[in-house]
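Still learning. Show one?

>
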Amino acid sequence: MADDGDRTVYETVPGADQGPPARTLDAIDRDILRILQTDGRASIRSVAERVHVSRANAYARINRLIDDGVIRGFSARVNHERAGHGASAYITLKIVQNSWRTVREQLQELPGAAHIALVSGDFDVLLLVHTPDNRTLRELVLTRLQAIPEVLSTRTLLVFEETDLDPDPAR
């Protein structure tokens, strides 16, 4: 992470899913997370002022949160429709038992895949995809997903409208 005073440039966080065991976050850490979730481009100076600590303290805390894997990276919230992906869907998959790692690797390669979760219940995997249109979505499901040998069945749930929830400071 580099700080030029007014703008902070965050570097990629390699291996962020690993790291030391989880530690308890204090109120300042939680405030820093809330600020960065709301505005991932917030400068160190701005974060420090808003949580009432020095810039050095804010910088050290953010680096610790990154090193501990609490912060996995920084990204932009995208309006998928305006970005040319007018069709979105959650797709549930039933997969062969013990094939999660293999299936996950193949799902990560799918164009438009945005989120993959191993879940419990009536199906095994929940996949969120964004595609340019329904025709492309249809091809993704019928040609790509159902061609994966470990996928036993799929069910597609079209997204008609979605809303990102911003972190609520009152929580």
Notes: The chain is about 30% helix and 20% strand. The first helix runs from residue 27 to 38. The longest strand covers residues 87-95. Residues 105 and 129 are 15 Å apart (CA to CA).
